[in-house]
Specification:
The chain is α/β, with parallel strands linked by helices. It is built from 12 helices and 12 strands. One of its GO terms (cellular component) is cytoplasm.
């Protein structure tokens, strides 16, 4: 499994995906003004810890053809932490394979950050995804223990994992067996909380019955919200599990930064995604993005913020996880957590998305091939 984060939904890439919110609760109508220099106010509860309402994904700091310079990354991370109220921790998401060669470059970057800013270690809640490689997910006890050693070496002594999650469900091992191993690793002090990623609702229930699951990580955005996401969200809400919603900006498309794969650096894994390379899909989805932009302009915020706020509105246990390597983007993303969309705005977004988003999440592979919804 060379392209580990590249999950794809099954089905034709040219059939519209109708995105509806279902029966999810919506917050009351509160209007907040965005200010990139002000401290954000909203927070979320993750395993009894107060964390930022909006997480910070670090993957594309290192898993790109040209890794972002340390100092730029450090400033982006630091700015996000500094913007939070006292007692609220930044939710940082890293991985043991977030590198072009599937190495530990992302964790090593974090190690250097905490060496420079050791006082910031206690101001962060660190989630690390692992147990995945070129051959696919591997949740054998031998490999999970090897992951613990690898992660500890890469992170160094200053910051420890708060949460560990297998990046994909290893269907060669019953989830109950995987959970028993992870529970043992918790008892041994390797990390504090267990997460699970890209699982289906039944797997989440089975896993939670063995040991409490703190968080489940799945892709959710205005471009990716169908029956699978809805079922996992419903199960997580019932069980009291946080939902980490990664790629809330459709891998950057909704932000407006990228119009197509041509805007990406050579070698960027997103160049092969159907939503970045198919001209028919690009044209159709661009019209949807433009309509979302009109909603954002009327509110006085960015399209990216509308998207993140829409995801956050799915429930208080949903923590959007956009990525950023720039101070300005980090603060913009965080501020979206203070934007409470009105019922009218949510209705407008729903009507726009009802037109149907074209393309799948990645390359048109089946869920089984992409190790999705295990």
């Amino acid at each position: 499994m060379t392209n580990i984060p590249a999950e794809s939904d099954s089905g034709s890439s040219t059939s519209p995906q109708i995105v509806t919110r279902g029966s999810c609760r919506r917050p009351s109508e509160i209007s907040l003004t965005f200010s990139p220099t002000s401290m954000v106010q909203q927070s979320a509860n993750l395993a009894g810890v107060s964390v930022a309402r909006i997480g910070h994904g670090l993957m594309l700091m290192t898993w790109v053809p040209n890794p972002v310079p340390d100092e730029q990354c450090f400033e982006a991370i630091k700015a996000g932490i500094d913007a939070l109220p006292a007692g609220t921790k930044a939710f940082l998401n890293s991985g043991s394979f977030y590198d072009q060669d599937l190495g530990t470059g992302n964790l090593e970057l974090l190690s250097r950050f905490f060496v420079k800013y050791p006082d910031y270690a206690d101001k962060t809640f660190l989630s690390v995804k692992g147990a995945a490689g070129k051959q696919g997910p591997n949740c054998s006890e031998e490999n999970l223990r090897a992951e613990m050693d690898k992660i500890a070496r890469a992170l160094g002594p200053i910051k420890k994992m708060d949460l560990f999650q297998p990046a994909r469900v290893d269907t060669h091992h019953p989830i109950e067996e995987t959970m028993r191993i992870l529970a043992t690793l918790v008892k041994e002090g390797h990390f504090l909380h267990i997460g699970i990623s890209e699982c289906n609702a039944d797997t989440l229930r089975k896993a939670h019955a063995v040991h409490p699951i703190a968080a489940v990580e799945i892709e959710i955005s205005p471009f990716s919200y169908d029956h699978n996401q809805k079922k996992v969200l419903a199960a997580a809400t019932e069980l009291g599990v946080s939902v980490i919603a990664y790629s809330p900006l459709g891998h950057g498309l909704i932000s407006g930064k990228y119009k197509s794969g041509a805007d990406l650096d050579a070698g960027d894994l997103r160049q092969s995604f159907t939503r970045f390379k198919d001209e028919v899909i690009l044209k159709h989805n661009a019209e949807i993005i433009e309509q979302l932009n009109q909603v954002a302009e009327k509110r006085g915020v960015t399209t990216a913020q509308i998207s993140i706020a829409w995801v956050a509105a799915l429930g208080p246990n949903v923590i959007p996880l956009p990525g950023s390597s720039k101070v300005s983007r980090t603060l913009e993303n965080l501020s979206a957590g203070d934007i409470i969309l009105t019922e009218e705005e949510l209705k407008q977004v729903d009507e726009i998305l009802a037109k149907g988003v074209l393309g799948d999440r990645y390359w048109g592979e089946s869920d089984k091939q992409a190790h999705l919804w295990g």
